[in-house]
Design goal:
Number of strands of chain B: 18
CATH topology of the largest domain in chain B: Rossmann fold
CATH superfamily of the largest domain in chain A: HUPs
Structural class of chain A: alpha/beta
Oligomer: heterodimer
Structural class of chain B: alpha/beta
Largest sheet of chain A: 9 strands, mixed
Number of strands of chain A: 15
CATH superfamily of the largest domain in chain B: HUPs
CATH class of the largest domain in chain A: Alpha Beta
Radius of gyration of chain A: 22 Å
Shape of chain B: elongated
Helix content of chain B: 25-40%
Order of helices and strands of chain A: EEEEEHEHEHEHEEEEHEHHEEH
Bound molecules: flavin-adenine dinucleotide
CATH architecture of the largest domain in chain A: 3-Layer(aba) Sandwich
Strand content of chain A: 25-35%
Number of helices of chain B: 9
Chain lengths: 263, 331
């Protein structure tokens, strides 16, 4: 079972969002100083899904990441958690990529690898929230794609994928090779053991740049970012209701809501 | 100029007919089409006996395409992409609008890559740059920490739009669309996926999508037992019950009741958040609610930055009397 997991490095989305600012001129989100880079959480779940399959059926897990200035320690965590190989697709031009460019770079690297059974991606990246690289990569590689999985079960040359839909869930059988995008419901990435973390520091990493991959980013980008602005927050002043006891406060809340015409 | 022409809306039905988002897409599509001086079309994909076909003419579109095939009986990415690919390649619309629904967000990227164009998902605004006649596509990014506006020179542009971001189209009675049955050819053996099970799991009470009031519980509620109380109050207010991610993980509510960027994006008239901290990922899924009320024991919880009314306190003490008073007031 040959699996490839695509992961993106993002600023920790769980870090406090109060300090997050938008640099309108540079069209960039500025995260508070000290926010560490992490693997995008949905991608960690994708890796966990691959490792769960490996636990039961064995196999080989290759982790791939596209970007500029990729943080080795962050991505080595994938090796420490149980991945067998880490390939960084790293270039100075791999910056602020759109989904089409990212999927094309991954496709080029995967074609170099040649054969595989299952590709796993996070359902969307925690920074761009674009939600397209997985589906797009499957199209570029001409393989079927099932999105937003909350469970994956390996069968005979196929996988059964459980996915949440608006009124319940469904199970889709897909022939391998295939691509599955993963949602957080699959579970968080296991915590690596200390000795595995240490061992991972010594494992070799493959690095490929744009030239080696035959990629010209400028010719691949299909989206222009025109502007980036802070979100429009609700402009409210919270009316705090306090009373001698919490029970009375509860009653007052109901009365206030009636008074304001909310109920 | 390009040779693309027209705005196309992908129509979705729920149990009670046309989805509200489809009406909103038609409203927005009509406006954009008129501004560009291009026609508006709607496309309905399904299998034999698309009953709604008869009403399709009243959708406000100039043309309605009905794409029927045995293999299109139920939504599947592969078959729907193949069917729409054929229609879109023939019709060459400037843009194809879909709802940011479970179907739209799955279908749009695959179709876009198939057509070697782009998709932009979860847009909250769609405008035309009048000088260039290019579409300005605006969507939240970074879990809601920023809003980005994109353009592209690639067509057709596949766009999904968030529910309630646009005003619905009034059904234009009297205006009859030209209904076209578009024949697709689908080769069963080329498809690699099969739906083997579909399970309805609505959860208790009203659905999030149809409720004007939502009571949402977070980690502070604990598991199903705590949610029992929220359900009882929901019944009084004709509200739906939802939850944060930890609430779903703790099995307090069904996974399809999660609110936020991973779950459902809702915009009710009233959102009552109980034991929810108000993380950006949760609030970007409900921040468009008209009014927000919060009960949380932590006075510094971010939820109070969004709330109109709040009580700082243990919900186990605040909520029962709140609920009892509500019952008294609404009965
Ligand atoms: C990429 C990504 C996507 C995400 N998507 C989503 C999403 O779609 N939806 C979502 O909800 N989350 C999402 N999250 C998780 C999100 O960041 C938060 O972790 C989550 O929303 C927190 O849920 P919570 O408010 O229930 O729990 P907490 O943040 O733990 O807050 C619990 C709150 O309950 C209060 N409380 C505890 N006990 C009591 C009591 N007895 N009485 C009153 N108050 C009490 C506490 O003061 C606290 O404020 C996502 C995270 C990431 C990184």
């Amino acid at each position: 079972m040959k699996m490839i997991v695509c992961v993106k490095q993002v600023p920790d989305p769980q870090a406090s969002s109060t300090g997050t600012k938008v640099d309108v001129a540079a069209k960039r989100v500025i995260v508070p100083h000290g926010t560490p880079p992490v693997m995008s959480p949905y991608d960690e779940s994708a890796l966990e899904a691959a490792l769960k399959i490996k636990d039961v059926h064995g196999g080989h897990v290759t982790v791939m990441s596209v970007g500029k200035n990729l943080a080795r320690p962050v991505l080595r965590k994938a090796l420490a958690s149980g991945a067998d190989e880490l390939i960084l697709l790293e270039d100075n031009t791999f910056d602020q990529l759109d989904s089409y460019a990212t999927a094309s770079i991954l496709a080029a690297a995967i074609r170099e690898i040649g054969t595989f059974d299952l590709i796993l991606c996070g359902r969307q990246a925690a920074d761009t929230d674009a939600g397209q690289v997985g589906s797009g990569l499957a199209e570029l590689l001409h393989i079927p794609c099932v999105t937003v999985a909350c469970g994956i079960e390996l069968g005979e040359e196929k996988v059964n994928v459980t996915r949440i839909v608006s009124d319940g869930y469904e199970v889709i059988e897909v022939m391998l090779p295939a691509l599955v995008t993963v949602s957080s419901e699959i579970g968080e990435l296991r915590y690596p053991k200390l000795k595995d973390l240490q061992a991972a520091q010594k494992m070799p990493i493959v690095v490929r740049n744009a030239g080696q991959l035959g990629i010209d980013v400028a010719s691949l980008m299909k989206l222009n970012l025109v502007s980036l602005s802070p979100p429009q927050h609700r402009n409210v002043q919270c009316c705090m209701i306090s009373a001698e006891t919490p029970e009375i406060a509860g009653e007052h809340l109901a009365l206030t809501m009636r008074g304001a015409g909310l109920i | 100029m390009n040779s693309y022409n027209g705005i196309m809306v992908y129509v979705e039905f729920g149990e009670n007919g046309l989805l509200p988002i489809t009406r909103q897409l038609l409203g927005c599509g009509r406006k954009i089409a008129d501004e560009l001086g291009e026609p508006l079309s709607a496309v309905i994909v399904g299998s034999k006996g698309i009953e709604e076909g008869s009403d399709a003419a009243q959708l406000g579109a100039d043309t309605v395409y009905i794409v029927e095939h045995e293999l299109l009986r139920q939504y599947r990415t592969e078959t729907y992409v193949a069917a729409l690919e054929q229609l879109v390649r023939q019709q060459r619309p400037t843009a194809l609008l879909m709802g940011q629904t479970y179907v739209g967000r799955d279908l749009a990227p695959s179709l876009a890559f198939r057509l070697e164009t782009i998709a932009v998902l979860d847009c909250i605004a769609l405008e035309i740059d009048h000088a260039s006649r290019v579409l300005l596509l605006t969507k939240p990014v970074c879990g809601g920490n920023a809003v980005a506006t994109f353009t592209s020179m690639y067509y057709p542009q596949i766009i999904t739009i968030r529910d309630k971001a646009m005003l619905p189209m009034e059904p234009s009675f009297g205006k009859n669309a030209h209904v076209v049955h578009f024949a697709v050819s689908l080769e069963p053996r080329s498809f690699k996926t099969r739906l083997i099970k579909k399970v309805k799991e609505e959860g208790e009470g009203l659905r999030l999508e149809e409720a004007a009031v939502i009571i949402s519980g977070g980690r502070g509620i604990g598991g199903a037992e705590g949610f029992r109380q929220l359900h009882e109050t929901a019944a009084i207010l004709h509200a739906a019950v939802g939850g944060s991610r930890p609430a779903c993980d703790n099995r307090g509510v069904a996974p399809n009741r999660q609110i936020g960027i991973t779950g459902k994006i809702v915009s009710p008239d009233l959102y009552i958040a109980v034991g929810i901290s108000g993380s950006i990922q949760q609030m970007s899924g409900c921040g468009q609610a008209k009014r927000i009320v919060a009960i949380n024991k932590d006075p510094d919880a971010p939820i109070f930055k969004y709330a109109d009314f709040g009580v700082v306190g243990d919900w186990k003490k605040v909520f029962p009397s709140f609920s009892a008073k509500l019952k008294e007031l609404v009965s």
